[in-house]
Automatic annotation (TrEMBL):
Composition bias, Low complexity: 41-52
Location(s), subcellular: Nucleus
Gene: Thyn1
Superkingdom: Eukaryota
Principal location listed in the UniProt entry: nucleus
Name recorded for this polypeptide: Thymocyte nuclear protein 1
Length: 242
């Protein structure tokens, strides 16, 4: 551990460039009991021409069969710019991940029950987008993979850590983390504004990003993605920025 609590305190801060999100320092507030009782199951899930061309390609690859909706990819938010939380800098950029031994680190500090449940659902080998959040221009910068499945987050027991939880017990830990490893940078930075343009278009014509949690639950720091959502966003790296 190069330094403690370098991801999120209670999850994602609303992105500065996201007009539909309220600027806040925590994820959506819900009582612990209410959140803990919620199911971990995710909800069902910039031009129309871009979506149609992508759809034709995918239908050709699959013989026209529609894939079942499953959540096997993820989006992980982390702050690339310095911000002190109880005196500790929670900054952690993609460059910080690449600087870790074996380019691997634990994803600690998640303190939202739904985000925690998503962490617990992750499987070894699954890929995730590394998303720079709460910064001048938020967006996707890289791809990482899960290399260790959920286990107790040690920061919940560290009284010096900003994410210390006095109500959590070692015999029954409340909070979990996973280990992630750098895979590669995306071929280009994919900004939130571009993803949102496609999301709005897909809401109108039924494209794969119509229910993307990045816009329906903006403040969650851990978000699931369907195969279609992941593939479509990944296809944007091949396009010239608008």
């Amino acid at each position: 551990m190069p330094w403690p609590s370098r991801k999120r305190d209670k999850g994602a801060v609303a992105d500065k460039k996201e007009p539909d999100a309220k600027i806040a320092k925590t994820e959506e507030e819900t009582s612990d009991k209410e959140e803990e009782e919620k199911s971990a199951k995710p909800p069902a899930g910039s031009s129309k021409s871009g979506w149609k061309n992508w759809k034709k390609t995918k239908e050709s690859e699959s013989g026209g069969e529609e894939s079942k909706i499953t959540y096997c990819h993820w989006l992980l938010k982390s702050e690339p710019e310095s911000r002190l939380e109880k005196g500790v800098d929670v900054k952690f950029s993609i460059d910080d991940l690449k600087a870790q031994p074996n380019q691997t680190t634990c994803w600690d500090g998640v303190r939202n029950y739904q985000a925690r449940n998503f962490l617990r659902a992750m499987k070894i080998g699954q890929q995730a987008f590394f998303y720079h959040s709460n910064c001048k221009e938020p967006g996707i910068v890289a791809i990482v993979k899960i290399v260790k499945e959920a286990y107790p987050d040690h920061t919940q027991f560290d009284q010096k850590d900003p994410h210390y939880d006095s109500t959590s017990r070692k015999e029954n830990p409340k909070w979990s983390m996973v280990d992630v490893q750098f895979v590669r940078m995306t071929k280009r930075f994919i900004p939130l504004s571009e993803i949102k343009a496609h999301h709005l278009a897909h809401k109108a014509d039924g494209g794969p990003l119509k229910d993307m949690m990045l816009f329906t639950r903006q403040r969650l720091s851990i978000q699931p993605l369907t195969q279609e959502e992941f593939d479509f966003v990944l296809s944007l790296e091949e396009e010239k920025p608008h």
